[in-house]
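Memo subject: From amino acid sequence to discrete backbone structure tokens
Keywords: amino acid chain, backbone geometry, structure tokens, three-dimensional fold.
Body of memo: The sequence and its backbone structure tokens, given next.
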Amino acid sequence: MKNTSSNWTLAAVSAAVLAALVAFLSTHAVAQQPQDIADSALEQISEINAIKDGFTPAQQKIDSALVFAAMKANGDLVFTSVADVPETIDPATNVTVDITGTVSQSLLDAIAAANGVVLTSSDALGMIQASLPLGALETIAENSDVQTIQSAAQAVLNAGSVTSQGYISHAANKVAAMGITGAGITVGVLSDSASAARIAALVSSGDLPPGTHSLPGQDGSGADEGTAMMEIIHDIAPGANLIFDGLSAA
């Protein structure tokens, strides 16, 4: 299978899974307005919830879309209520991922042993970008030096290496030519997490502006959702300053 077609297939699998995850993330709305949710949607939410509750510690470190794609590729994902995701892909299909954690020789050896290739790495930032077989992600995640494994962003240029769809959705493209960039404005983002390592990597790639930071003690412990939000804001208002404040656990 050629790499291009593999990437398209993986994208299709991930899109289908993420569509189901959107329903799962709407649980609070379901609780408040059950009359607006079809029985089939409630069943899908329940099934996705049950599968995620069964994630192993290693799977919990990995981007959910990648976990579901790997499960599908291995024949371990059988939905009863959720429409089947596209054709099964080969677990040997390579995917490009960003790994956060400690860049140790043990981890580098594990990537090599899994037939993976390290594309870039930074000891200081605690980041590795690697090409790995989809079926090997769980094995790599079991390494104690790994904190998270996420799909690597694909380059579509506007601000930095990646431009989000938010740039178009919010019509920022229509005012950018007028010189409106958000310069002189500071935008604060509230979410569950924005790790210093991820922020530093994205500042380095130009996807976040210099000076972007989390407030002291507010990095959080999630999967860098706040960092992703700041990437979207930087695409929309590339001249604005960005800071992050983690949501309280209370």
